[in-house]
Amino acid sequence: MARPQIDRAEADAVLRELRRRTDEDDCENFHRYELDADHRLKNLFWADVDSRLDYASHGDVVVFDTTYRTNKYGAAFVPFLGLSRHRTPVIFGCGVLSDPSLDSYIWLLRTFMLSAAGQARPSGAGRVHVPGARRRDGSPPAFEERWRGFVAAHGAAAANRRWLDAMHAKRELWAAAFARDGFFLGMASDQRTECLATRLHAGLREGMSLRDMVAHADACARALRRDVAVLDAEADRSRVELATAHRGLEEHAARRFTPANFYLVREEIVAVDGFEVVKTVARGHPMFGKKVYVVGLKQRWGVFFHVECSGGRDVVKCSCRKMEREGLPCRHIFCVMIHNNSSRIPDCCVLRRLRRRGDTKAERIDEMKDLGRQVFDLASEDAREFKEIKVFFEGWLEERRTGLRRSGAIAAHVDTVTPVTKKTKLIEN
């Protein structure tokens, strides 16, 4: 049964409003649309400037979730979502497809990427998760065995066989067996993505007009951004009660991570006591080479994990790959830190997108401490180098003090850049 076509007058009103937003409110508001052969609205995508900025901050993982039966035209509603630093949903843009064909989805994905063009995403490859596409297929060999059975049952028709062959050639893009170590921040499950879109879907209903659907999506995006602002303010005021025996590590984690991420990290710190370092292997230069720590379960001999630390470059990796999958340090890394009497989590294990707001000064201090520790260790071995470094720091401090005395006082830095200017600069960058 053919779906009802979107009313021309209603589509024209929505497009006029989207054009007005770009012309009058902010030139960085974005929308694109596609017409069918009868010049009726076929597909639509829109993203306001704040959603595009959210993508710049949190666009390393993107989820899109198609919903039907939410409007009087039966058009597919497709929001693009991500996770904020507080692990709450953020909206990067929304699409409406009156013709949910393969070509329409290709158009929608390309248009979304066009809206994101020029936005500097967080470090790491951006990944898109399509709910329902990733299942627990086990290992690649198990997937191939199940795939052969599926093809035998459904691949008799020539058209089906061509499509199945094309999907098999792209299996690494959609099959969980080939993407289990992908960076998805814990979102690679249908249940998690449905939770992300719950608030957005809650207000949708059959019989809703296109104009009402656009207004509802925009209102949800604004509400979600207000939630992030409230959580930022609460995080600035919050003081976490320490609850583990490893108070130094726990305290440092509480200072660096937002509360939502800190509680996940603390679970790993709590689990540390069940592990121990059973062997250490050094490779290369004593200071700048690598060290591999073999970490095992205390109560179950034979289960081992390998934590690799690269000296001088702040690089830590574990064979469990939790950091690569979820962006959070694992219990095995913490076990090595405790083994080395370290209470500072390396910067490589604290992703910027999961940190507290305004952690810039702390980041600089920690970075200077790391750099200084390496410089001082090397310089202390040679009297001439030690004197050169010491004279340099003394001269730098004296210059700073002299400059401050000449200015009369130490003035508090006042940020005079308006939010609008900041927004413009971010987009330009």
From TrEMBL:
<dbReference type="InterPro" id="IPR006564">
    <property type="entry name" value="Znf_PMZ"/>
</dbReference>
<protein>
    <recommendedName>
        <fullName>SWIM-type domain-containing protein</fullName>
    </recommendedName>
</protein>
<dbReference type="Pfam" id="PF10551">
    <property type="entry name" value="MULE"/>
</dbReference>
<keyword id="KW-0863">Zinc-finger</keyword>
<dbReference type="GO" id="GO:0008270">
    <property type="term" value="F:zinc ion binding"/>
</dbReference>
<keyword id="KW-0862">Zinc</keyword>
<feature type="domain" description="SWIM-type">
    <location>
        <begin position="305"/>
        <end position="341"/>
    </location>
</feature>
<dbReference type="InterPro" id="IPR007527">
    <property type="entry name" value="Znf_SWIM"/>
</dbReference>
<keyword id="KW-0479">Metal-binding</keyword>
<dbReference type="Pfam" id="PF04434">
    <property type="entry name" value="SWIM"/>
</dbReference>
<dbReference type="InterPro" id="IPR018289">
    <property type="entry name" value="MULE_transposase_dom"/>
</dbReference>
